[in-house]
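Supplementary Note 2. Why include the ligand at all?

Several targets in our set were suspected to adopt different conformations when bound, so apo predictions alone were not considered sufficient. For every target with a known small-molecule partner we therefore ran a joint prediction. The input for adenosine-5'-tetraphosphate is given below.
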Amino acid sequence: MSATTAHPPAPETAPGPPATAEGAARPRVLSGIQPTSDSYHLGNYLGAVRNWQILQADYQPFFFIADQHAITVDWDPKLLRERTLRSVAQLLAAGVDPEKSAIFVQSHVPAHAQLAWVLNGITGFGEARRMTQFKDKSAKEGEGAASVGLFTYPVLMAADILLYRPHYVPVGEDQRQHLELTRDLAQRFNHRFKKTFRVPEPYILRATSKIYDLQEPTRKMSKSSSSPSGIIEMLDDPKVTAKKIRSAVTDSDGEIRYDPDEKPGVSNLLSLLSALGGESIADLEEQYAGKGYGQLKGDLAEVVTNYVTPYRDRTLELLDDQTYLLQVMAEGAGQAGPIAEATLRDVYQRIGFVAPGTPAR
Ligand code: AQP
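The joint prediction is reproduced in token form.
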């Protein structure tokens, strides 16, 4: 059983289901997620994974577990292995279907790192330095303590995307700047060496593009900067989740109204209820007129519990069948690998690398 909805709202920056001529290839979408926690949080789920599940009906999807990105900050090898399997299990539990989508692990397709190296050569140091995620993530320990990998993370992300020449990249708002860099690098490469890459569009659903922390509702829900009480883990015991929702920070004026500037906590709860329950924010405002925050939180806790319980059960079931998970990864890499390698061959030829055993052209 999967936690799904029928159709996503229209994305902010891309058209809805494509008007594809019969027989023509469906437009390609690609996205990735890091295996850096035991469970995805509700931000990862609503901002990215749920949309992946929906898009696979009309697009040709490639979804990967970004294990190479995961080693740009400190990591534990045993945990990384476990979390990679947990990530695949969660994608499947969310309804991403290996019959429709290529689900693979980044390090199983060496072309990602190989293209990243080439793109490093056309990325300006200053341009990489402007990436706000690097600034945010390196701020805690200081820039000197951050890895070079964290610095070039957006270049690897550009390679991840450009290898597959996708039309759209479904991500949360926090990835918009990285996607802009990807587009710049694609255009720069195409201009300098001959058209090679498709310049991809972001696919960002406004309603769920940024899910906020329950305790600090002006900050995004995030595994590295949220406190445990501010983050809804999809695989948590639903009772724990319900308790976190009941303790969410709101305000003292008592009115249930969507106003992210004045009432960020209540607005976040309304957004979550709307995203998971399917009713519009305007309808919810009407229904909750004159009611208290306790009622809103109780209802949201129930909706979240109903939503995550089958997801959690299915994930735990899949984790008992590691042979199947490994098979899904192998099949996904089998689909992704040849496409990525073909792009890399084009790139190598265009930039002047001599292909082994062939005369230089
Ligand atoms: N709060 C969020 N709201 C909406 N979308 C979100 N995403 C992450 N947080 C939110 C989207 O989830 C996808 C996978 O993200 P990732 O694996 O790159 O993880 P992340 O962005 O690093 O997730 P975190 O929790 O925010 O991790 P840290 O704290 O390490 O930065 C992406 O599409 C992302 O946009």
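Residues 33-34, 41, 43-44, 47-48, 171-172, 174-175, 209-211, 220-225 surround adenosine-5'-tetraphosphate (CB under 6 Å). The radius of gyration is 21 Å. Comparable summaries for the other entries are listed in the accompanying table.
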